[in-house]
Amino acid sequence: MTKGLSKEQIEQFGAEGYLKLDRQFDEKEVAIMRAESERIFADSSLADIANLRAYTRNTLSGEPVIDRFDPVRDLSPQFDALSRDKRMIAAAADLLGEDVLLFKDKLIAKFPGVCGYSLHQDFAYWQGVGIPAEDIITAYISIDKAGADNGAMELFLGYHDIVFNRPGKMDDIEEDRIDTSNALLLETEPGDVVFFHTLVPHRSGPNRSDRHRRYLYFSYSPARHGDLYDRYYETYRERRLRELPGDLRDRAYFR
Description:
Elements (H helix, E strand, L loop, with lengths): L6 H10 L1 E4 L5 H16 L11 E5 L5 E6 L7 H7 L2 H11 L3 E11 L6 E4 L2 H4 L10 E6 L10 E3 L28 E2 L7 E5 L4 E3 L8 E10 L6 H15 L2 H4 L6
Antiparallel strand pairs: 1-9, 2-3, 3-4, 4-11, 5-10, 6-9, 6-11, 7-8, 7-10
C-alpha cells in the first residue's frame, strides 16, 4: 500500500465502490490490535452504557451488551498511530484522488452470540457535515478471521451512486428497495483491509460462532474540506445524549 495503488485497483473501486487488500498488516501488528481491543473492552470506566462512546447491541437471546466504541483512537496510542499509518492514508488518498484527513473512527467487536447490523448506507448518518457522499471513504482492518458464521460484512454493489435515505433522516434501507440476492460476503483474514464508498449499502449477520469478529474502522475525507473530525463528534455526542433513556441521560458522560 505504501507504494500506491495500481490503476486497476483505483478503477475497480470507482466501478464497484469497494476494494479489498489482503494481509496489509502482519501477525505481530494484528496481535497488538487484538490486545488493545481486549484492554478497552475490559475497562469498566469505558464499558458503561452511560458512556456516550459505548454502543450496545443485543445478543441472539435479547441481552444487551456493549459491542462498539466510537470514537476509539484517543483511547489507544496504537489505534491513533494506525489512523495515521501511511498504508491507510496513502490508499485513501489514491482512491479519493487527493490528500485526506481522518473523519471518524470506531471499533466494533461482534462477540459470539451478538446480533448484526441492518442494511444501511453510512452517509445517512454523516450527511450533517455538509460534504458530498463521494468525498468520504471508509476502511476497516479485520482483526479476526471473518466469514458467514461470525457475521462478516455483506456489501451490495451497483448502488454507490444512489442516496436511499430521506434528506436529514438517519434511516436504514428497506430491503425490498435493493436486490439482496447479490450480496457480496467479505470473508477476511486478520490484517486484511477493505475500503468502501460511503453510499455502498451494507449489513452484517449475527455471530453464531464461538469466535470474535472485530473490525477497526477509519473514515477519511479530502483535506480541502478542512478538519471535520471535531465538528462531526460534537454533533455526534449531542445526538447520542438525546438517544439515551432519561435515567441514563442523567448520568451520561464521555470518556
